[in-house]
Amino acid sequence: MKITRKQLRNLINETMIAPSNLYQHIIQDPKVNIKIKKLLQTGIDTNNQKTINTALTLLRSLGTNPEYNNAILNPHTERLTSHDYQKQFNDATIYGRTQTPEGAHTTINNILKPHQTNQPDITTSGQPSPGGYIIKIYTSNLQTLQLIKKDIKTSGLNAPRPIGDWYVHYALPQNQFYGKYELTVIFKWHTPNNT
Questions:
Q1: 181-188 sheet: strands from edge to edge
Q2: What is the spatial distance between Cα 34 and Cα 27, in angstroms, rounded to a whole number?
Q3: Rounded to a whole number, what is the distance in angstroms from the first to the last CA of the chain?
Q4: What does the CA dihedral 189, 190, 193, 194 come to, rounded to 10 degrees?
Q5: Boundaries of CATH 3.30.1360 in the chain?
Q6: Which residues does 73 contact at the CB level (< 8 Å), separation at least 6?
């Protein structure tokens, strides 16, 4: 089987390790010393890796939160928690690009553009959901909605993340889009472990 350069690049990008949210876990943990949290937050705010490393070393040496030791000692932690890596991940992967409501809308709108020339009544709405975001796509043409769903699948959004679920149904009378078909796409936000 031959693979094109573009397919290879996409494969490499999609297999990137998801960024870590270790720092946010530590800052939000009520068991962690407040002074360490403040020092860590200062390092994050100023993008100062020395300050961040000092906070992590203090956290480890106190021994009060051993659940973070493996993640702190992991040689990849510094890279996976950096702002630069988060941006690189978001830019390179469809998964990363859909981790915010704006990114999810942009991705869906790019998929919808070719369909909107033939079916101008396509509209979208979005709303937060527990652990993610929901985008609803409305149109009066069920066949167009089925094609949109197929295009979403082939774009890479369906494998196996970031879409948690989706379904097609007819909008109910109390809905402002009554009389149209609705495709609901549920995006799940990335919740990595501490490493």
A1: 123-129, 132-139, 181-188, 163-170
A2: 8
A3: 35
A4: -100
A5: 98-188
A6: 60
For the entire predicted model, the pTM comes to 0.53
Q: Are 109 and 151 in contact (CB under 8 A)?
A: no
Cα–Cα separations (whole angstroms), residue 188 to 86, 161, 185: 17, 7, 10
Q: Residue 56: which of 44, 45, 46 has the closest Cα?
A: 44
| Helix (H) / strand (E) containing 18 | none
129 pairs with which residues across the strands?
132
Q: Which two tokens stand for residue 41?
A: 């937050």
Three-class SS state of 141: coil
Report the 10 Å Cβ neighbour count for 98: 28
Q: Which CATH architecture has domain 98-188?
A: 2-Layer Sandwich (3.30)
Per-residue pLDDT of the chain (195 residues; tens, 9 = 90+): 777 776 766 666 656 566 667 888 888 889 999 999 999 889 888 888 899 889 988 988 888 888 888 888 777 777 667 667 767 766 666 666 667 788 888 888 988 999 998 888 999 989 888 777 888 899 888 889 889 988 887 776 654 454 555 555 666 556 667 778 888 888 876 544 433
